């Protein structure tokens, strides 16, 4: 056995001992929040397809039409020949939706945050990241070479203290947070955070991956980032900002410049989904309404978004509850460290407009029965 193979085997054994090893499971998703695993039909509460648009016939038709007209791939990076018409149209619509001058679409949300942070700050600058921010926010900050500090989750007093002590030592300051936090489902206090940032001449990036279309937008940040893969049911990421900022990212964001453009079908599908989001507000309101129905049934704090965490604690217990629910017909995947802090393994329940009230009530009853 080579040293590489030996290292991999030992590391996997360590992960197994802590119930932290990950494994891929083939999953066929279907209508009505359905999913099939191992030949068993399940109701999925683990998809980020909050409006069920990835399976909407209108979205599928838009993707198929773009596939037939423009081909399967973009053919090159966007600065070469990969800037096809569906991407241009999508960026115009995203910018309008966010109330910004311009938008820039990336290959994924992760790539968008990596590219933006590294393009805007460097070694003499400061990046302040909410402690529960997504992995890509921290990765971008680390790659930038800037000084990176965490502020306690949604704690504006802590953020104010860090700015007061550190602001004068750095040229540019970037604050990174999320509109809806992906593992806890709570929201950032954006109006107050944006006012604080402005007082210290700091720039704020809001990751809206889990808020677009399902949570009232409220205050807009100078830098609005999001994904096309959740509410919009497609794939990709984007940044919306003032025109000079987007023009700068077009030239300086490495994860944009040095990668092939998004496939035409993905862009066209996302555009069709965004049109549905804007045209059908009652559909957009449904996931949060269902999440609140669920939290009321379980006696949990009222949901702030379509994401509701069921905190368990240790990884083996979270895996056991997930398996028990799957045996009852519900797919609720366990989330374990390092995705969440040690000791906070959980089930992350995600609600969709595709769910019925009966499915939501059934899951609540199953959880109560398993935890009795």
UniProtKB/TrEMBL annotation:
SUPFAM superfamilies: PLP-dependent transferases. One of its GO terms (molecular function) is 8-amino-7-oxononanoate synthase activity. Residues 42-367 form the Aminotransferase class I/classII large domain. InterPro entries: Aminotransferase_I/II_large (IPR004839), AON_synthase_class-II (IPR050087), PyrdxlP-dep_Trfase (IPR015424), PyrdxlP-dep_Trfase_major (IPR015421), PyrdxlP-dep_Trfase_small (IPR015422). Pfam families: Aminotran_1_2. Its cofactor is pyridoxal 5'-phosphate. Keywords: Acyltransferase, Pyridoxal phosphate, Transferase. This is 8-amino-7-oxononanoate synthase. It comes from Methylobacterium adhaesivum.
């Amino acid at each position: 056995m080579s040293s590489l193979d030996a290292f991999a085997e030992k590391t996997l054994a360590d992960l197994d001992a802590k119930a932290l090893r990950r494994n891929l499971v083939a999953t066929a998703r279907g209508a009505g929040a359905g999913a099939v695993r191992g030949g068993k039909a399940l109701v999925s509460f683990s998809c980020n397809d909050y409006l069920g648009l990835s399976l909407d016939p209108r979205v599928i038709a838009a993707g198929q039409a773009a596939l037939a007209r423009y081909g399967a791939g973009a053919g090159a990076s966007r600065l070469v020949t990969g800037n096809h018409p569906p991407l241009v149209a999508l960026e115009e619509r995203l910018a309008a939706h966010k109330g910004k001058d311009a938008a820039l679409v990336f290959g994924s949300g992760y790539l968008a945050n990596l590219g933006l942070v590294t393009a805007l700050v460097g070694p003499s600058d400061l990046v302040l990241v909410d402690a529960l921010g997504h992995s890509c926010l921290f990765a971008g900050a680390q790659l930038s070479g800037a000084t990176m500090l965490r502020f306690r989750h949604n704690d504006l007093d802590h953020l104010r203290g860090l700015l007061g002590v550190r602001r004068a030592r750095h040229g540019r300051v970037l604050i990174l947070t999320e509109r809806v936090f992906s593992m806890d489902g709570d929201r950032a206090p954006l109006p107050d955070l944006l006012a604080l940032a402005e007082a210290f001449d700091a720039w704020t990036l809001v990751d809206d991956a889990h808020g677009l279309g399902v949570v009232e937008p409220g205050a807009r940040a100078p830098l609005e980032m999001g994904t096309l893969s959740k509410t919009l049911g497609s794939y990709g990421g984007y940044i919306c900002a003032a025109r000079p900022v987007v023009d700068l990212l077009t030239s300086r964001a490495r994860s944009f410049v040095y990668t092939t453009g998004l496939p035409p079908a993905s862009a066209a599908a996302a555009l069709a989904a965004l049109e549905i989001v804007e045209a059908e507000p009652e559909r957009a309101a449904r996931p949060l309404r269902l999440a609140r129905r669920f939290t009321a049934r379980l006696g949990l704090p009222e949901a702030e978004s379509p994401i509701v965490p069921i905190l368990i604690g240790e990884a083996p217990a979270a895996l056991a509850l997930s398996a028990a629910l799957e045996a009852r017909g519900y797919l609720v995947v366990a989330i374990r460290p390092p995705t969440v802090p040690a000791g906070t393994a959980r089930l992350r329940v995600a609600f969709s407009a595709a769910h019925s009230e009966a499915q939501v009530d059934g899951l609540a009853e199953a959880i109560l029965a398993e935890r009795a």
